[in-house]
Amino acid sequence: MVIKNCKFLKPFHINAIVLYPFILYCDRQPHSDIIAHEHVHIDQIKRDGVLKFYIKYLLEYFAGRRKGMSHYQAYRNISYEQEAYNSARAT
Ligand SMILES: [Zn+2]
After folding, report:
1. Ligand 1 centre from 1 Cα, in Å?
2. What pLDDT score does 13 carry?
3. CA distance 57 to 16
4. Ligand 1 centroid distance, CA of 48 (Å)
5. Under a CB-based contact definition with an 8 Å cutoff, are residues 70 and 76 in contact?
6. More confident call, 3 vs 90
7. How far is the CA of 84 from the centre of ligand 1 (A)?
8. What is the H or E stretch that residue 81 is in?
């Protein structure tokens, strides 16, 4: 289920987020690249399961932070994010 115009995400610098089964977009008309990216996450959740997705996602993020990565570096280092960015680039 898609929810657009979620302005409360903006202060957190989040353009979109999957809170399964919802996809929240900050903008009223999100860019097609962002839509494609979020749909990769939906596919990942359907493939791996909701719990595994969110647990692995958070563990990899905090592992990156513990290694001294910035928020953005740790975010981009998450395997689900790498897959989503690589997949979006391939389309
Ligand atoms: Zn993502």
Report:
1. 17
2. 87
3. 16
4. 15
5. no
6. 3
7. 6
8. helix 79-90
User: Over the stretch 75-88, which tens digit does the pLDDT of each residue have?
Assistant: 999 999 999 999 96
- In the block, tokens 């990769």 appear at 40
Confidence of residue 40 (pLDDT cuts 50, 70, 90): very high
Do 9 and 15 form a contact (C-beta atoms < 8 A)? yes
- pLDDT > 80? residue 89: no
Q: What is the DSSP string of 8-62?
A: GGGGGT-SEEEETTEEEESSSS--HHHHHHHHHHHHHHHHH-HHHHHHHHHHHHH
CA 28–ligand 1 middle distance (angstroms):
18
**Sequence-distant (≥ 6) Cβ neighbours of residue 55 within 8 angstroms:** none
